[in-house]
Design brief:
44% of the residues lie in helices and 15% in strands. It is an alpha/beta fold. The longest helix has 15 residues. 43% of the residues are buried. The structure holds magnesium ion (MG). The site of magnesium ion has 8 residues, from loops.
């Protein structure tokens, strides 16, 4: 029997928080700083990793691809989230029930609560710091968009970090993902994780059900229902 705590991996955008438009403004600003070009066309980042969204932004805005551009962009983006933290907290919002659930999980020794997101690890952390949520999550094992080319590859990254940091050995079936898109659900299925989907993003409740999430909720406001879904199997 495994003695590792239950691993819960959270998506960030539209699962924990909404940026209220600050996210795309920061993207635009960092794109300009990194490339010197204006972003005329903003690609839809839903379900994508940040390097994939950035590569698409280069193509759609006809900026020649160079290897060093993404790291310059990622640095500028994280810096911008730090500088615009007050604005982010004001215009964005923590989604219903999120703070209560994260706080509860952070206090439990039988749970390891961390992040699996398309954001780079640094940008994701900076975003959640603006809302006072970063402190509830384990950042040593978090997996971000800069850790692997596609989202499904991020789960093994988190598992490897859990092994390297704590000696916990996670395998198939011992992890729960929480997310708002079909990409989150597909990522869980690819790694045989369970998945709680929440309809606080652009994907509807019915679409999430049709995507075969283990459970779909309208939002996370019913703390005991969310905890039961995450812990009770
Ligand atoms: Mg999301």
């Amino acid at each position: 029997m495994s003695t590792s705590p239950r691993l819960v991996l959270w998506d960030i955008d539209h699962t924990l928080i909404s940026t209220g438009g600050v996210g795309s403004e920061v993207f635009r600003r960092a794109f300009r700083e990194a490339t010197g070009a204006e972003l005329a066309v903003m690609p839809d980042p839903t379900g994508k990793t940040e390097p994939a969204t950035f590569a698409r932004a280069l193509r759609e805005n006809m900026v020649p691809v160079r290897d060093e551009l993404f790291s310059a962009f990622a640095e500028a983006q994280t810096r911008a989230y730090g500088e615009q933290a007050a604005e982010l907290a004001e215009r964005g919002r923590v989604l219903p029930g999120v703070r209560e659930v994260l706080e509860e999980l952070a206090g439990r020794p039988d749970v390891l609560s961390s992040v699996l997101s398309g954001n780079t690890r640094a940008a994701g952390r900076a975003k959640l710091e603006a809302f006072g949520l970063a402190r509830y999550l384990d950042w040593d094992i978090a997996a971000g968009g800069d850790d692997a080319p596609t989202r499904p590859d991020l789960v093994p990254v988190a598992w490897e970090r859990a092994a390297a940091t704590y000696g916990y050995r996670y395998g198939l079936g011992e992890t729960v993902l929480v997310g708002d898109t079909l990409a989150d659900i597909a990522t869980a299925h690819a790694n045989r994780c369970r998945v709680l989907a929440v309809a606080t993003g652009r994907t509807s409740f019915d679409e999430l059900v049709a995507g075969h999430a283990d459970l779909v909720l309208i939002d996370l406001s019913d703390t005991s229902a969310v905890l039961a879904a995450l812990l009770g199997y």
